[in-house]
Amino acid sequence: MKAIVQDTLLIILGMEIIIGSLGNGFIILVNILDWDKRKKISSLDKIFTALAISRLAFLWSLFLFLLVSELYPSLMITEKVLKITSIFWTLTNHFNIWLSTCLSIFYFLKIANFSNSIFLYLKWRVRKVVSVTLLVSLLFLFINIIFINSYVIRIDGYKTNLSYSSNSNDYVQFSRFPLLTNTMFTLIPFTVSLTTFLLLIFSLWRHVKNMQLNVKDSRDPSTTAHKKALKMVITFLFLYTIFFLVLVIQSCKNEIQHKNLFNLLLDDIAIAFPSGHSCVLILGNTKLRQASFPVLWWLRCRLKDVECLGP
């Protein structure tokens, strides 16, 4: 029974990686082709493309890590491999999280309506706000990598004086350390995203209230834009929250065993964020949604052909 559950969770994980790879790859391809055709790219498309690239790298780094740990478990305790895997995972996770946060900031500044002078100043300079946010995030990334790198060196120095194996407590503690530091640094962008979400709700509430007082149609463009943005941000924040809680749970666990059923379940839940959110972005963006119709039509035709060739 345990083997069946484990295989099922691994199949789900593989499906999520495939869906995430196809979804993010589709976003990258559509935006690059559109860029080549128009010779220009919007700020939103830039964020979409950069986010899709970071998520594609994140998903494939996870796949390679699981593959290597399964086929060559002894490699996972060498200093060089520890550095490469932990730092690369930190890099991809960092840009996945912060670019998602920049996307929520972009939607907030573009759609929300406040008369506050600070908000208006930021709204008129949304590109600079996103750029500065990414630059500031690089400082947190630099500090995070320093922590992890120093810990790898300390573990390797300690390893030379002890018999060391992949089942040792020190390896478990190292496995937890990148998760712990990434969880701590994820709290900052998570708080920013939550704040923009609450402010967007407040902006919509004020706008709808003003529309009611003025006896105007509640389906005006501003209200529609607010509601559309809220749907996108709610989905994003829901998946983001689940991802963050999984990081917290995994960093608090006493053991890190990738074959453990509970850990596999947590991995399946966490990967729903970079995989599922890419599908949400495609459905919520007019250009990406329209570009997906020919692909879906082609897949439908192919499935019909397969059914016709069946017994």
UniProtKB/TrEMBL annotation:
PROSITE patterns, per the entry: G_PROTEIN_RECEP_F1_2
Domain G-protein coupled receptors family 1 profile: 23-245
Alphabetic keyword roster: G-protein coupled receptor, Glycoprotein, Membrane, Receptor, Sensory transduction, Taste, Transducer, Transmembrane, Transmembrane helix
Pfam families registered for this protein in UniProt: TAS2R
GO molecular function, one term: bitter taste receptor activity
GO CC, any one term: membrane
InterPro entries: GPCR_Rhodpsn_7TM (IPR017452), TAS2R (IPR007960)
Stretch forming the signal peptide: none
Membrane topology: Multi-pass membrane protein
Transmembrane segments: 12-35, 47-67, 87-109, 129-153, 184-208, 229-249
Record's subcellular location: Membrane
Family, per entry: Belongs to the G-protein coupled receptor T2R family.
Name of the molecule in the record: Taste receptor type 2
Organism in which the protein naturally occurs: Peromyscus maniculatus bairdii (Prairie deer mouse)
Name of the gene: LOC102914718
